[in-house]
Amino acid sequence: DTGVSQNPRHKITKRGQNVTFRCDPISEHNRLYWYRQTLGQGPEFLTYFQNEAQLEKSRLLSDRFSAERPKGSFSTLEIQRTEQGDSAMYLCASSPGRDEQYFGPGTRLTVT
Amino acid sequence: GIQVEQSPPDLILQEGANSTLRCNFSDSVNNLQWFHQNPWGQLINLFYIPSGTKQNGRLSATTVATERYSLLYISSSQTTDSGVYFCAVEVVWGTDKLIFGTGTRLQVFP
C-alpha cells in the first residue's frame, strides 16, 4: 500500500528561479489537493483537482503559481520567479471523494 | 470564514500522563480530521470523525457537531507522541478543502 508521494523532498533555489514540484496520489483517489505551510502555522489550502479538472484556487495562489493534473493521476505545482516569501512546506493530499484526506511527506522549499 | 481554534497552544507532559486537546469551530462542518505532525513535517492521520466517538489504542476522539467542538484524548503519553496536533474541518457550505486549526504543540519528556 503506497501512500501519497512527493518529489523532491527538499528544494533550495535562488530568488527569481522557477521550481516545479510533483505529487503522486494514492492510486484511484480522484481528488488531489495542494496546501502550503509556513513556519509555526497550520497548512493553508492552495488548490484542488477532481480528476484532471482544477475546481478551486485559493487567493493565495498568485499568478506566479500554476498547477496541473494532466491525466487525472499525478500533479505538478510550478512557481515562477520565486520570491523569499514563497519559502514554505508544500503539501499534497489525496482522497477517494469528499472523504478523509491523506497527506504526502511534503516538499520543503527554501528561496535564498 | 470559519474559525478553528485549538487549545491549549502548548502542552508539556511527563511520560505516562494523560491529556485532552480541544478543537472549537465556528460553523457547521461535514468533515473533521485530527492529525499528528511529526518533527519531519509529515501529517499523520489520527481520526476522521465528523461526529461521535472513536478509539484507536491510547488515543480517542469525540466530536459534538451540534456544539461545534471536538476533543482528542491521549492516555499514557509516550515521548513519540511529541509533535504538533492539528484538527482540520471541511465546512458544510464550502468545497472539499480542509481548514486547519491553530495547532497544539505537545512535548512529552521521559
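The interface with chain A takes residues 30-31, 33, 35, 40-43, 45, 48, 86, 88, 90, 95-103 of chain B (CB under 8 Å).
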